[in-house]
Write a structure and sequence with these properties.
Chain lengths: 366, 396
């Protein structure tokens, strides 16, 4: 009897369990039913993708200035090209576009700073984004000070307006949402019921009726003779709507913090606002970021509704361009472009929120 | 010997603003006062504004003649009808598109959500592609796409697409054959009702028998056969008392049959496809929330795969799925108000749109519209809460 002292070399896995063929068998053709599904899937993909790619790329016209340059049967991207400035800046004066660009660029830097985990001074950058940046953006975009000419809001439009509506709605809704969420968890019955009614009312009605209300009823509520800009009216409606949704997200975050945290803070003699502001909210806010990003995504998509009350956001300006008599019949191109822009923003934000969720998850899972 | 400190040795009583109960009381009184002052301010302004514009308040306008036509109506309606009736027509249209949208979104959503978890790589990828594309594009844009880029570019009535010369699709909508019921057809809904009652009785009896003796019949299949087979049998026995009114091209348009207007089609398609992408994600996460140990335990008890799904996975997954599903249904109902952008005559379009513009009764019209959505939201959440309570875990 021999004793094997040397380790036997690991043998390679059987041929039929490794390699692309085995992968195909395991994932696509593991049985008759699966094979049928796979073939159906490939057929569906073929039927959908071939005409789409032919239309959008192979048979498309890309360069030119007028509709006469679109001679082929595919998409006429010339239309989008010719209108691109309008789709992004609306009717903002062409000579003043640098102002918008500076705001866009500084916003991108701030957001990138907040989104990339390794960079320092997160708290100060967040404060700057929430407090200083809106003021800066207002002076840059609207003008009227520091030698900048005034650009009235009815000339704002396109992607720029979409971003303004979403960001302002979000930033304004955050503090209101926090107060409402705290109120809903309060021990005081009247405060609590007031917050519940407020939240459930705005969550229970469609945004479009809120916008109608803001544009039709709000002027009636103000003293006679006082009028409010149409953009501001839309922003008030969006903020009220968004704060209710935000309050629910924040309430969810508050509930996730163990009660012991608040009790410990109370035992140290902290008052209500100190307990909330220094102990509970900082912990809760971190956990709420994915939820906040998700509500921001839906707000970003919902800003398209302002076109119904006559503002020209990205979708509104595309829709308006479609009825231009020089460019009739390019609805598909316009919608595909707008959809692509929205999709890029929403998809990247949702990916970021999923990444955050995974990151936060590991911290709390044992 | 210890001396119990007396109350007065603790010093003077703290001032009332240090007393939590009194502070809460004062705070709430102040809140009420602030809200009341705000409301009074608004009401005062509104009254002054309305007086300045010469608008009389009140719901009297609901009795006046509307004077405009509506493209789709489930009840009798003409331009001679009252504004009150436009409200009802709009409400019914909203309910119609919402109900059909909920059904379609649920079917698509569950299919895609389950496909997303398929072991077949391609099917799972197709499902996640569907989800990622449709939930990241604004609903309004999707409605516009279906309406302006697809349905408005359909051929004219003469060159309609047709399916077997009975179903036609053209720029004016979808034309379906309409069943016309002859005398003797009344028997069929009757048998249908009898079959339903019989199946319920069967299920109850089967459950009792199962609990008492452990034996059971395939009650699901038997009731399915009863509910669909029995009316079919009667239908054949009575000689099929149904004729179909097939739409026919006369002049420039189709006559006869059922017409589904393109506005409805576009809204219904967009609502179902958009909401389905959210429902699919809810279904996926609901199924994934059930730990694998549950499946393994069920298999260890040698339950067949079908029963593992029906008795172990689905009931537990439903608990996770139902609350977010409810809010998706509510979103769908609220989103149906986007109808106004393409002119589908829903509540917001005909009432908060046309009626408001014609009468100028902003306050009444907007409040009625909001109240309707609030009531619908409340009713749906009440129903879903009831349903949720039925499937919820009973904790002892």
């Amino acid at each position: 009897m021999t004793i094997q002292l040397k380790m036997i070399e690991a043998r390679p896995a059987p041929k039929n369990t490794v390699g692309p063929l085995a992968w195909l068998r395991a994932n696509l053709f593991s049985g008759p039913v699966n094979t049928v599904f796979t073939l159906l899937g490939f057929y569906l993909l073929f039927v959908l993708l071939t005409p789409t790619i032919q239309w959008a790329f192979i048979n498309a016209d890309w360069v030119g200035t007028s509709r006469d340059d679109c001679s082929r049967e595919g998409a006429c991207w010339v239309f989008v090209n010719a209108r691109l400035t309008q789709f992004i800046y609306g009717l903002y004066p062409r000579t003043e576009l640098w102002r918008v660009n500076i705001v866009f660029a500084s916003f991108a830097v701030l957001i990138a700073w907040l989104a990339i985990p390794r960079l320092p001074f997160k708290r100060w950058v967040a404060l700057a984004t929430l407090l200083a940046f809106p003021v800066f953006a207002y002076f840059m975009l609207y003008g009227g000070h520091f030698g900048l000419s005034v650009v009235p809001t009815h000339r704002w439009g396109g992607l720029m307006l979409t971003l303004i509506l979403a960001v302002v709605g979000m930033v304004a809704a955050l503090p209101i949402g926090i107060l409402l969420a705290l109120g809903r968890r309060s021990q005081m019955p009247i405060v609590k019921s007031f917050c519940v009614v407020f939240i459930e009312f705005w969550r229970g009605v469609p945004l479009i009726t809120i916008l109608f209300m803001a544009s039709v009823m709000l002027p009636l509520f103000l003293p006679t003779g006082m009028s409010v800009d149409r953009l501001v009216r839309a922003l008030i409606g969006i903020t009220l709507f968004q704060s209710a949704y935000m309050a629910e997200v924040i309430r969810g975050g508050l509930q996730a913090i163990p009660k012991g945290q608040e009790e410990a803070a109370a035992a140290l003699g902290m008052g209500y606002w100190k307990r909330m502001g220094l102990i509970v909210l900082p912990q809760a806010l971190k956990m709420m970021i994915p939820g906040i990003v998700n509500t921001f995504i839906s707000l970003f998509k919902d800003t398209t509704l302002v076109m119904i009350i006559g503002l020209f956001d990205l979708l509104g300006i595309v829709q308006a361009a479609l009825s231009d008599s020089r460019w009739l019949g390019f609805a598909l191109e316009g919608y595909v472009f707008a959809a692509f822009m929205f999709w890029i923003f929403c998809f990247s934000m949702s990916r970021y929120s999923q990444y955050l969720e995974r990151k936060l998850h590991t911290g709390h899972k044992r | 010997m210890s001396v119990r400190p007396k109350a007065h040795t603790l010093g003077p009583k703290p001032p009332f603003w240090r007393d939590r109960a009194k502070r809460a009381l004062i705070f709430q009184v102040l809140l009420i006062a602030a809200v009341a002052a705000f409301l009074l301010y608004i009401i005062g302004n509104t009254q002054a504004n309305l007086a300045a514009r010469g608008i009389t308040t009140g719901f009297g306008f609901l009795e006046r003649t509307a004077g405009f036509g509506i493209g789709q109506s489930l009840i009798e309606y003409s331009s001679q009808s009252t504004y009150g009736r436009t409200f009802v027509v709009g409400l019914l249209n909203t309910l119609l598109v919402s109900a059909l949208g909920v059904v379609a979104a649920t079917i698509i959503g569950f299919t895609v959500g389950i496909a997303r978890l398929s072991p077949n790589w391609l099917i799972a990828r197709l499902a996640s592609g569907y989800i990622e594309i449709f939930r990241n594009i604004p609903l309004l844009l999707q409605i516009f796409f279906w309406y302006f880029a697809v349905l408005r570019t359909m051929p004219s009535a003469r060159d309609s697409y047709s399916l077997g010369e009975v179903i036609f699709l053209n720029v004016r909508g979808l034309y379906l054959p309409e069943p016309l019921f002859e005398s003797g057809f009344g028997l069929i809904p009757l048998t249908f009702g009898v079959a339903i009652v019989a199946s319920i009785a069967l299920v109850v009896w089967n459950k009792r028998r199962h609990e008492a003796t452990g034996k059971r019949l395939p009650a699901g299949w038997i009731s399915l056969a009863l509910i669909f087979g029995l009316p079919l049998l009667v239908l054949v026995a009575t000689g099929v008392p149904v004729t179909w009114d097939v739409p026919e091209l006369r002049g420039f348009n189709f006559r006869g049959g059922i017409t589904i207007i393109p506005e409805f089609l576009a809204l219904w398609l967009a609502l179902s496809i958009y909401t389905a992408s959210f429902i699919a994600e809810i279904v996926r996460s609901g199924i994934q929330a059930i730990s694998h140990g549950q499946t393994e335990a069920a298999q260890a008890l040698s339950l067949p795969q079908k029963l593992v799904l029906r008795l172990v996975i689905v009931p537990q997954a439903l608990r996770v799925i139902i609350p977010p599903l409810t809010s998706q249904y509510l979103n769908l109902i609220k989103n149906s108000s986007l109808a106004t952008a393409i002119g589908y005559p829903d509540l917001v379009s005909v009432f908060a749109g046309t009626t408001l513009n014609q009468t100028g009764q902003a306050i009444e019209v907007i409040s009625m519209t909001m109240a309707v959505y609030l009531i619908i939201s409340l009713l749906v959440s009440m129903f879903m809460n009831w349903f949720n309570a039925r499937v919820a875990l009973v904790e002892r």
